[in-house]
Amino acid sequence: MKKPHQDTNVDRRKVLKYGAGFGLALAWPNSKVLGANEDIRMGIIGVNGRGKSHMDAYAKMKGVRVVALCDTDPTVLDARVNKMADVQEISVQGFSDMRKMYDDGDIDAMSTATPNHWHTLAGFWAIQAGKDAYVEKPISHNVWEGRQLVKLARKHQKICQGGTQSRAMGSIQAAVKFVQDGNLGKIKYVKGMCYKPRTSIGKGGGGAIPDGVDYNLWCGPAAQESPLGRKRFHYDWHWFYDYGNGDMGNQGIHQMDVARWYLGEDKIAPRTMSIGGRLGYDDDGETPNTQIVYHDYDNAPLIFETRGLPSAKKYQEENWGKNMNSPDEFPGESGISVVVVCEEGLVYTNAGGSVKMKDNKGNDLEVPKAFETEDIFTNFISAVKSRKVEEQYADCEETHISSALCHTGLISHRLGDALDRGEAMERIKGDATLTERFGSMADHLEKNEVDLKKDGLLTGPMLKFNPETEWAEGNGDLDEAANLLARREYREPFVVPEVL
After folding, report:
1. What is the per-residue pLDDT across 175-191, written as a single tens digit (0 to 9) for each?
2. What whole-number distance in Å separates Cα of residue 218 and Cα of residue 285?
3. Residue 113: strand, helix, or coil
4. For residue 337, what are the contacts with CB-CB under 8 A and spacing of at least 6?
5. Looking at the whole model, is its pTM more than 0.85?
6. What is the fold of 4-166?
7. What is the CATH number of domain 169-371+396-485?
8. How far apart are CA 353 and CA 337, in angstroms?
9. Are 284 and 229 in contact (CB under 8 A)?
10. Rounded to whole angstroms, what are the CA distances from 309 to 97, 139, 204, 324, 327?
C-alpha cells in the first residue's frame, strides 16, 4: 500500500516545475506543514554539488527541517526541491535569489555551498537578515571580506560556522592535542599537501550558460564574463581568479586549516612566499596546478604544496588519479594530507581523519584515542541552539584565518617573476627547508617532462603582512599591488560593506 503523500507525485511535480525559483511556498495535499515548535528551519543555497551533502545532513537531523532551497539554475532547483519534499514529507520553498529567501522564506538559519565568490556575501546577507549561517570553505574569496564576515557575526551575536569539517574529526582533535602537549618535542615545520589529480580543462573557452540560469545572479560580486573563458560552466570556475581560488582554496583549504591547527597559530603569517605555475599542459585555467607556499611563522613554518599532475608523465595517459605522489615521509599514503615534523617524531593526518605517528627511527608509535565528536553540521545546529560561539568546532574566525592563508599565498604567486629552476633556487637558498621542498617539486615537474628552463615557475616575493590588520605592510612599492589583491572590486549591488 502506498503512503498517502506518494499519491500526489504527479501533481506535485507540476507545481514544482512552475513554482521553483519564484519564492512560492510549494505545499501539496497530505504534506506536513511545520507549526510553531522547536524545529530549526534551514534554508540551503547552492544545491548542485556540495550543497547536496548539506541537504542530506540537515534532513536527517531530529529537530531540523530543510524548508527552503535556493539556486540560480532552475533545473537543479526543481530536482532538489522535489527530493527534499519527498524525503521530509513537508512543504519546501524554492528561490532563485537568496535575498528573496531571506525576506520571504520562513527560515532560522542558512547553509551555503555556492561558488567561492559568493560565500562571504551569502553569509553577510543572512546575518543582516537575522539568520545564523553555515558558510562553506573557503569562507571568503579574498582576505578582507572574510574579516568583515567575522566582524559582522560578532556584532550581531550570530552563530557563523565555517566548512572546514576536519575540525569535527575526533581522531584529528586528539592528534593535535597530543602534539601541542609536547609529546614529540618542538614542531620543526608542518607541511600541508593537496596532491590531487587535476586534468586540463581545455583551450578555447566559450562554454554555454545552462538554460534558465540567472547569470547575473550567478556572477554576483564578480564581473560578468562574456563569452565564458571556460568550456564547462559548473566546477571549472575554481581555476579562474574572479570566482575561485585554485586547488589550494578548494581542496587544500582543509589541509591548510589542519596544518595551522597543529601549529596553534591564530593569525595569518607575518611573511608569505609562493613558487608555482600552471604547468604540464596548456589550457585556459589561470590558477596554479603546482605550487609551494611558505608561511614563515616565527615559531615554525607552515609549508603548503599543491600538485595536480601525476607522479610521472606516462600516467597522464593511464590511471592519472591512482598515480599521485605520496608524502615523502609516509610512502604509499594519500597525498591529500598533513605531515607534522617534530624534534622527536612525525605525524601524518589524511583528509579522512586517519592518523599515523612514528619516531625518528621510523618505528610506529601508538596514536592517541580519538575524541567523541559531532559531525560538522550537527555541531553547527548545537551551537545555534545553545547560542555559544565557543562550542563550534569551526567558528568563522578559524575558517577565515585558514582561508586567508590560501589568499596570501596566491597574492605572492600573482606578483611573482618567471624564473627557471636555478634562478628560483638562488632566491631561496638561505632557507634549507624551503630549498629541499622546492627541489622535490622541481623533480616532480621534470618527471612530468616540464622544462623549467622553458616553462618558468612564478617565484613570488616574500611578502610581509601585518597579522593584526591583515594588510601587506613593509614591502615598499609592492604593498599597493598586494593589497589590491587582498580585496576585490565588487559589482553593484553585490557589495560586501566594511563593518566598523
Report:
1. 999 999 999 999 999 99
2. 19
3. coil
4. 192, 193, 255, 327, 330, 348, 349, 350, 351
5. yes
6. Rossmann fold (3.40.50)
7. 3.30.360.10
8. 9
9. yes
10. 38, 27, 21, 7, 15
